TrEMBL record:
Matching InterPro entries: Dimeric_a/b-barrel (IPR011008), YCII (IPR005545)
Pfam family for this entry, one: YCII
Protein name per its UniProtKB record: YCII-related domain-containing protein
Family the entry assigns: Belongs to the YciI family.
Sections of the chain in a coiled coil: none
Bilayer-crossing regions: none
Domain YCII-related: 17-93
Organism: Mucilaginibacter celer
Organism ancestry: Bacteria, Pseudomonadati, Bacteroidota, Sphingobacteriia, Sphingobacteriales
Domain of life: Bacteria
Amino acid sequence: MIHASAYKDPHHVMLFFEENDNTAHALQCLSARENYYQNLKNSGKVVMSGNFWNQDKNFIIVYVSNDVELEQIIENDPALQQNVLELVRAMPF
């Protein structure tokens, strides 16, 4: 498997997340996260997002110019910052 850091040119990355927390605090973080990714979608960075049926897992496909931008997107995810979600895989393509 090629790691996302091997990509220096624009590319897509599919990010897979699992839920760590489902408390009221988590709902607040997930709401902030929704706004965060909506802003990225409005700027053309989020291509698609969704949930896996009957699972506490979801995915987001982002379009990034390089690995640094990908790291910034991941680091600024409110639900990851608060440990509500866990990034389980980043698959570049």
